[in-house]
Amino acid sequence: MADPSLETCPDFAGDIYAGIRNDLTAATGDQPQEVIDRLVAAWTEGHNARVLEWNQRREEEAREEAEIERARAAQEEEDRLAREAEAERERLESEKKKPKMNGFSATAAVGDAIVPRPSQFAIQKLNNFEYIELWYFLPEGCKDALKTSRAIAEDTFSLAKLDDQLTIRPASAFKASRAALPDHELSFSSFLRAKNLFLTHVNAAKWPQSHIDSLALFFWHLENHAIRNNSELGDLVVLHYASRVRLDWHDRLKRDEGFNISIINEVLVRSINEELWDRVRSRTLNMTPLAEPSATQHYRRSSYREPYEPRRRASRSRSPGRAGNPRRADRSPSPDKGKNREQRAKGFSRGAGSRGRSACAICLGRFSHDIQRCDSRNLWDKTTPAHARRSQDGRIISTNGLPLCYRWQRPGGCLAENHDSAHACSGCGDKSHGAQTCPRGEKA
């Protein structure tokens, strides 16, 4: 639509409008000039109405355009603010992930001693409040961590779940050492040394103080427990108790069933003690009985087994002279309740009857029969009840079920000093001699 303000009034007095003028003059009886004036007035009125309508429409369109422009500007401003907020959020997120370096004191120097650092795997376990073997806090464990950190490239990473998100962390944080030992396979001295560094790093990992105090008291009670003085297996009992209870403590904490670990359960201690003694009774006596293992053993074993010792080849009867071998005497044995090696050697010489057949450890007979399988209920005389019998796996045990040392019953005797309780005669139970010199035995 064109702008009506640009229109011009037609020339109603011209020849083009002559016919209209004549018709209007004839119809109205007015003079020609009056008709022309009326035509001009009608056109002017219509023109003014069109101009007014035009102006109103233009104003309305201007208002609409202004509203559209304001909405567009507002949307652009909103989009700009959203982009700035997203950029700020990404910046803050990036700042959180970015490693931070704390400041330092310009006057402070390094300390007089540096606390040994265990593996990243152990540190990560502590940071997650999870169970970790004490071996990692021994010097051997810290040295192994140093070797591992050199062997694993610094740019090697693994995926880990943190809350509901997957994160990338160094692979060293997830690599357990193949040389690690469970707590009950450590020596007791290694156990005590490891727990000190363990408590130091637990404190550095910001564990709750109540948990740290309870653990410290737990280790103190075990170190000073009476069973260490009252049982030959006391240290091993304590190690097994510590290993099992600490693992169970962490499991219970995860299930929100935590208990006070510093309270020692004496019933469980006695149960473990009986369990270990049962193992001693059931072991083949050709193997050295339970002993404290070395913390430097690097083979893996299943949990809660007695420490492994290699099976010794069954030797043939030793002559009494070997008991006095100077090379064996130079090995500086530990004190053995007042008995020295010379006294033992003399005792073995008295018990050795190497002439003719050896006495059977069960029936004390020297007659021809299979002494390896003999399980007679009576002695060689067929009347005196036997003092010992064979278990289902062929070992020699006394009538009350206690294991007896097989070597002690042989002509050569036994030089071992760590199982005196098994050094008793299988014929009468006397500890001063073996089966070969038992007065109940068949004479050679």
What does this structure look like?
- The chain is mostly helical.
- It has helices at residues 18-28, 32-97, 120-127, 139-151, 188-204, 209-223, 227-230, 234-254, 266-282, 326-329, 341-351, 406-409, and strands at 157-162, 165-170, 388-390, 396-398.
- The strands form two sheets. It has a two-stranded antiparallel ribbon.
Main sheet properties: 2 strands, antiparallel
Helix fraction by DSSP (H/I, runs of at least 4): 40-55%
Q: What is the helix tally?
A: 12
The first-to-last residue Cα distance is: 145 Å
Percentage of residues in strands? under 5%
H/E series = HHHHEEHHHHHHHEEH
> Which structural class should the secondary elements be placed in?
mainly alpha
Gross geometry: rod-shaped
According to DSSP, the number of beta strands is 4
Main sheet: strand order: 1-2
What gyration radius follows from the Cα positions, in whole Å? 51 Å
Low-confidence stretches: 284-355
Q: Overall pLDDT, averaged?
A: 78
Q: What is this structure's SSE topology?
A:
Layout: H1 18-28, H2 32-97, H3 120-127, H4 139-151, E1 157-162, E2 165-170, H5 188-204, H6 209-223, H7 227-230, H8 234-254, H9 266-282, H10 326-329, H11 341-351, E3 388-390, E4 396-398, H12 406-409
Brief synopsis:
With 444 residues, the protein is mostly helical. Helices cover 43% and strands 4% of the residues. The protein has helices at residues 18-28, 32-97, 120-127, 139-151, 188-204, 209-223, 227-230, 234-254, 266-282, 326-329, 341-351, 406-409, and strands at residues 157-162, 165-170, 388-390, 396-398.
